[in-house]
Amino acid sequence: MTEPAAVPLLSIRKLTKLFGTFAACNGIDLNIMPGEIHALLGENGAGKSTLVKMLFGVLAPTSGQIVWNGKPVTIPSPGDARHIGIGMVFQHFSLFEALTVAENIALSLDDNIPLSKVADEAAKLSKAYGLPLDPSAHVADLSVGERQRIEIVRALLQNPQLIILDEPTSVLTPQEADKLFETLDKLKSEGRSVLYISHRLEEVQRICDRATVLRHGKVTGACDPRQETPASLARMMVGAEVASVERDETQELGDVLLSARNLTVPARTPFAVTLKDISFEVKAGEVLAIAGVAGNGQGELFDALSGEFPQADRNSVSIRGVAAGHLGITDRRLLGAGFVPEERHGHAAVPALTLSENLLLARNQSDRNVFLSGGALGIIRHGTLTDAAKRISETMDVRKSAEDPPAGSLSGGNLQKFIVGRELDRQPSVLIVNQPTWGVDAGAASRIRQALVDLARNGSAVVVISQDLDEIFEVASRIAVISEGKLSAPFPAGDMNREKIGLLMGGMHEKNEGAEAADAH
Amino acid sequence: MRIELERRPRLSKFFMAASPLIAFAMTIVAGAIMFAALGKNPIEALDAIFIMPLMEVWSLHELAIKAAPLILIAVGLSICYRSNNWNIGAEGQFIMGAIFGSILPVVFYGWQPEWLLLPMLIMGMIGGALYAAVPALLKAHFNTNEILTSLMLVYIAQLFLDWLVRGPWRNPEGFNFPETRQFAPVGVLPEIFSESGRAHWGFVFALVAAVGVAFMMKYTLKGFQISVLGQSERAGRFAGFSSRGMIWFSMLFSGALAGLAGISEVSGAIGQLRPVISPGYGFTAIIVAFLGRLNPFGIVAAGLVLALTYLGGEGAQLSIGVSDKVTRVFQGLLLFFVLSCDTLILYRIRLVFSGKRAAEGDAA
What is the pLDDT of residue A520? Predict the structure, then answer.
């Protein structure tokens, strides 16, 4: 831990960033000591990204001071940030897939250094920090975890004193995350500091020395995360107790409402994943959660189940006992299914259209006689739509700036609550959700999860595709894992643990021949 | 040094609305500079082009005649452009509509029932739609670029018309002029107010089409499909809308309106087919559509403005003795300024002085 007398590596005083009159960061104070791992916690929209962008020279502060090693500095650009010793690993990587690891690293360097030398350096660093990387490998062939290592090595090549990591584990398997934590420990032991941005409380407790919590652009708490409980940290983040999801373990299961039988879908594009022989059944009253690391076929599975891209084999998907493989999304909706895709903007909703229009987007045929009149003319009943959008907003506690604002003006969490509410409002007997709480704040996430569990409790079959293991354990009655387009057999949630899921995520299907037996509950 | 366009974080509502007006004002200024450079008095020249045509009743009728095809075509194109289908070939669809609609009065000229106009207009729409069906089919099933195919078909239509009026459809009693027979009176689109000028019912069709499309876009599921598929094909697919179906609908719809404009022009304003029946209405309508912000009522206003440039250009030939190419120059300037204003509303210009800094900016 830090000595009181030590000079902080980075000290932020009263840092404020205004966008118009809106204060994204409002008088933030923060000290980072040499050799500490400092967590920055906060919900979406709390001001974490804005703060980090100011530190990395992407945004200019409106007022306040940044003190680096005891001296006040201004950071006008990312180049200047790197120059004084701040490195950053972004949540979304900026890598060229067609180039090799070494080439990607060389591209990010300011000076002209021969490629062979870059490769040597990179190999040396990756070995020293336990980040196994082959400099001559093509990025397209690498896993997300390996890609992240490239970004980390890139940052390390600049020999930074402070490394900023933005949500680094959101794309990693538990095993990959463990490796990352070892690297962070190594960095710490060398006296480097890490600013670790996350909303995963357990991780923060595990690796961080201190934590600063932001809410609505202000610091609401600074603590030693190890002295806190996840609940108390969450309270600091959300400002209120986060309701934990309530489940009824004694749920009686009904008929099979959704099933996939040998669902095989060839990749539509060179970058898509081929779905191989996927089979599962979901009964009334249960939530099947499908875990997996991003990019293993989740999107493709959703498209195949939703019917946005129907299959040739009519028996590959059945909804309420009706063969639906060949049906499009409208016909599957008419059979009683509802769908929530991963991408909110431009898939589940059109940002420039209002909420009521986005309600019509998903329900223009399933509720045709409610929302449309005039027969074939299809006259839109704007009044009925606005009322329904209002009802959904009230039920799901969607916070918005106007009566019927454009979808794009809502925060991610509020828009997601609306999108989920839009489906729940019609009481679908089958609901398929991809990444229900991706980028959604804790309060909204807990509400959405509870709604999914409640839907199943009322006799619907729910499929939740998610990368978030906490979420999966909160909602699932059974858990299956998708890896490289193959789905493991589903296991009862009670028999699963993180380690087992992690192994399945790595594609260890072969070793689970006995899974079918375990599944018979 | 490099020039970069940077997306603006916030768009100004005021400039979005004012952009067509600013573009028009800048066109006037640029036009004045051009006339000064040609040695003409700019005030006089602009007066001749933009004011004089509005001072006489007969001339307002001429304005309506020129505006009718522009508005009719542009209203159809707005559906295409809103749904992300880039039909550039309205000129060809206009000509094909005129040819199809002329089959009855030219080939079957002896047949003259009272209601001849109705089948003529319908066949005009069918002709335009069929011609637009070619790029629609190519795009929907072979994924070709409709901008290229629809544009290339314009030249085919122009040459086909030229061949028809010089060859099989030439008036046998017409002293070998490359023209068809004059349409019989029952095949001529009547004037709206025949006592004051020539304006024919084509202008009414244009207004009806504008109101109809405005209604469709605001109140019907079809209009909703158009705006959803135009903004996000993926969201449209999620909604269960077919983007292939939309290619067909928007191309056929705009083709039919262009065809209606073609047969109205031939039957109302010209009275026969000639080698050239359009001073480029189909292309000018693209400017009209964008100047009108793809909004039907904006298109009516923009159509009148562009019609004025045609009329003023003709007037300026007589009164101040400049080439009628002036019309083209003004239309070009107007499109240029509309597009530049829109670009500057969306983006700001940044000068980058050294390569190194730019690379750092990209890394952010």
Answer: 41
